[in-house]
Amino acid sequence: MFKYGLFLSCILFLLPPTLIGQENKFRFFKESDILKPFVSEIRSNVIKTEFAFINKLGENYYITDYNKRPFIETHLGVDLPVLYYADNLKKLKFSLDGEIGNILLIDMFEENTAPVINTDYFFGLRAGVVKYIDRGLIKNIGMKIIPVFHESTHIGDEFSLHGINEIPGFKRINISYEAWEIAAVLNDPDTISTNLFSVKAGIQGLWNRSKGYYVTDTLETKGVIVPPGKKNMEFHVQFNIQRTEGALCSDSWMQVLSMEIRNRIQFSYDDAIPEKRTWNYNIYFGYDRISKSRGRNIGFYLRYYTGIIPNGQFRNTGGYRYVGLGIVYH
Q1: How buried is residue 33: exposed, middle or buried, by Cβ count under 10 Å (0-12/13-18/19+)?
Q2: φ, ψ at 161 (rounded to 5°)
Q3: Fewest 10 Å CB contacts: which of 24, 46, 60, 75?
Q4: pTM for this structure?
Q5: H or E, element range at 11
Q6: Buried b (16+ CB within 10 A) or exposed e, 91-130
């Protein structure tokens, strides 16, 4: 009961007091432009397709020459708008949305079966408010609350079947949890198309700390008892620089440098190896083709990631490097 009360309190906290009054107009099921994910956000519903080279996939991947060819990682997602409110007089915007996303990592150019490595699914509810100030370099301030989101992950069938049948000590770990997130933003890009430096910082925690981030079945771990996780908090800061004025950019081609620094938990599925906190860096650099009519932009980006493997049960493996070239639709 406490969880539902806190959930409702978070939403009411973000609701502008004037929104409740009948004299103000607001719209249901209208998508807003505020508090969209930066392109570098590691878990987001931004649509992407990336071709990338990686250096490792843990100790259980049964194909050994994978670092000689590119992998494909796709991100699919959608916003489900519930409520949008804008008060031009008070320079205030509010939105309440659902969000659904999926991240797929596939060894597409493997010749025999092109196996799926991992799929992450997530969905949740997001509320946010932005206040426009427009004082020099400070354009606005805002806050985003995700009262609850769920994530679950699954390794591919070929990977799982081969591991169970052929690899001693193989474990299939079901990452599945519910969490909350709170973030503050300075200079949310919204529909701003001029030069802008934006910062976002946030914290994430589990609703069920005793359960942790994952569960196991001894049928999928060959009878081995996997210790539950003990740590649960994640912290992140994101930077986003966009330029349409100056060298190597224009009104039609926005230059973007986006980076997320996330402190998260490197899981351990072995009692002898403790969990530890790690710093993970996700960096994008590229250009968005600005569309004046569609409301969506197509971007072309280089990506570099270093840290723990961010996909599914592989989050127990550090020293991961990912270098890719991608197309982004957002």
Answers
A1: middle
A2: -65, -40
A3: 24
A4: 0.92
A5: helix 2-14
A6: ebbbbbbebebebbbbbeebeeeebbbbbbebbbbbbbbb
Element (H, E) at 164: helix 157-166
Tens of pLDDT along the chain (330 residues) come to 445 445 544 554 555 554 444 445 688 998 899 999 999 999 999 999 999 999 999 877 888 899 999 999 999 999 999 999 999 889 999 999 999 999 999 999 999 899 999 999 999 999 999 999 989 999 999 999 999 999 999 999 988 888 888 888 888 999 999 999 999 999 999 989 999 999 999 999 999 998 999 988 888 888 888 998 989 999 999 999 999 999 999 999 999 999 999 999 999 999 899 999 999 999 999 999 998 776 789 999 999 999 999 999 999 999 999 999 999 999
Which tokens in the block code for residue 328?
Answer: 């982004």
Residue 269 sits at φ, ψ, to 5 deg, of -105, 20
DSSP3 helix / strand / coil % (the chain, rounded to 5): 10, 50, 40
**In contact, 161 and 120? CB cutoff 8 Å:** no
Residue 52 forms beta bridges with which residues? 71, 324
Cβ atoms of residues 280 and 237 within 8 Å: no
Kindly report the CATH number assigned to the domain that includes residue 254. Answer: 2.40.230.10
What is the phi-psi region of residue 295: left when phi exceeds 0, alpha when psi lies from -120 to 50, beta otherwise?
Answer: left
Helix (H, G, I), strand (E, B) or coil at 288: strand
Q: How far apart are CA 160 and CA 221, in angstroms?
A: 11
Domain count, the chain: 1
Q: In which domain, by residue range, is 231 found?
A: 2-329
